[in-house]
Amino acid sequence: MPEHTRPARGMRDFLPDDVRKRDYVIGIVRTVYQRYGFEPLETPALENIETLTGKYGEEGNKLIFKVLRRGEHEASGETDLALRYDLTVPLARVVAEHRGRLPRFFKRYQIQPVWRADRPARGRFREFYQCDVDAIGSRSMVVEAELCAAVSDVLHALGFESFFILLNHRGLLRGMLETFGVPDRLHDQVLIAIDKRDKIGRAGVATELEARGIPAEPARRVLDALVPEREGPGTFDLDHFHERVFAKAREHVGDHAGGLAAIAELEQIQRLSRMTSAHRHLVVDLTLARGLSYYTGAIMEIVYEDLPGSLGGGGRYDGLIGIFLGEAIPACGFSLGLERILVVMTERGMFPADVDTAPADVLVTLFEGEPIEDALGLAAQLRSVPARVEVYPEPDRLGKQFKYASSRGIRLVTVVGSDERQAGTVTVKDMDTGAQTGVPRGAIAGWLGARLKAAAAGPRVAGREV
């Protein structure tokens, strides 16, 4: 492929089959989120640079796609705009800007692309969609339980079963770090290093802690407590597993008030989740850190079988909106990574059979010397069913038009030659079975509607209830 025809590195073109799969997943996400009472929101692709900088920590700031000032200012190399890095900071800005027009408890979902100047890898791109769901205005742990349930329902509807929602708490982590003797000013440095564990391993985290100036003894305690070899929670009874996890957490924080309060919140989230679809997937993991600096409370991340990385994550960020508004507004959210979900579903054949890959239900053929107007009129008649109808754009041999329909996955082909026009009928060929049916021209719309309705009501081989 010539270099000049390729998209920019980390960006992709989406062909029709890709878009149909994307629309299928987004449709399920939207349906489930709406079932939980969340409303849609969209924000601009571009934000003012000051809106984004300083919100994601040192690692995140490096990955913001900055936009040069334009016109006479271009030569200065200065930036005043940036492509949005995520959907959470723009949401915080929206809440601050429109607070008076929003309900006391604002629940929104947002499905839009974001951009990061990251290094592309398998399932990791520089432009990708996020499917966010956030609740603004309440500090109740009901929010965390509902968010975990919503994303669990989405993944169940898409066919995922062997996933875990890892759960931890920034307050617990900070309580542990204080107890271990890590200076307050270095807490964020430690959390950033821990968050890289899956990429660089325990030895890499140890090297990072040393490079970031963490004293040797606190660093050893951090490694022992927060970067151990992971146990697989699937091999345990979860209730018994959590008893041991919470006991270990209490040992780590001792009498630290903030750490104990965080443990109590985690226990409450776990208890509330027992009544939801998230219960058998929720696993408290003391090693979960998440690198973004704006998290203040519970943090979550989805892991799936042997897949590196995660399918999504989130947490509570009670201080972020206050940066814009000047008053504390509680908030919590979860983000599903659409691209990684699509990659996994495609590689593992998880799309149901009834995700239609054909561009049309019917192909209307054209014959040399026959009136084109008649074909267009028939297409209009069929589209009123409603049906998806493609008109072959130029007269050609009938066999060639049949071959085209087969190559495109179009099952039904109409034929109206001189014999059909004289008889006032339409011949419909089923490309799957080869059967041909003569239908009166005046009844063709009703016949096709009944045919499509019967097909839609038939057995769904791999479909899933949403």
Q: How large a portion of the residues is in β-strands, by DSSP E?
A: 15-25%
Computed over alpha carbons, the radius of gyration is: 28 Å
| Dominant shape | elongated
If strands are numbered along the chain, what order do they take across the biggest sheet? 1-5-6-11-10-9-7-8
Largest sheet: 8 strands, mixed
Structure description:
With 466 residues, this protein is α+β, with helices and mostly antiparallel strands. The protein has helices at residues 16-35, 49-52, 57-62, 88-97, 142-158, 170-180, 187-195, 197-211, 216-226, 238-253, 257-273, 320-325, 338-347, 372-383, 398-408, 418-423, 444-457; strands spanning 39-40, 46-48, 66-68, 79-83, 106-115, 127-136, 163-169, 282-284, 298-304, 312-316, 331-337, 362-364, 389-391, 412-415, 425-430, 436-440. It is elongated and about 95 Å long. The protein starts with 15 loop residues before the first helix and ends in a 9-residue tail after the last helix.
How is the topology of this model organized?
Elements: H1 16-35, E1 39-40, E2 46-48, H2 49-52, H3 57-62, E3 66-68, E4 79-83, H4 88-97, E5 106-115, E6 127-136, H5 142-158, E7 163-169, H6 170-180, H7 187-195, H8 197-211, H9 216-226, H10 238-253, H11 257-273, E8 282-284, E9 298-304, E10 312-316, H12 320-325, E11 331-337, H13 338-347, E12 362-364, H14 372-383, E13 389-391, H15 398-408, E14 412-415, H16 418-423, E15 425-430, E16 436-440, H17 444-457
Parallel strand pairs: 1-5, 7-8, 12-13, 12-14
Antiparallel strand pairs: 2-4, 3-4, 5-6, 6-11, 7-9, 9-10, 10-11, 14-15, 15-16
Helix pairs in contact: 1-5, 5-11, 6-11, 7-8, 8-9, 10-11
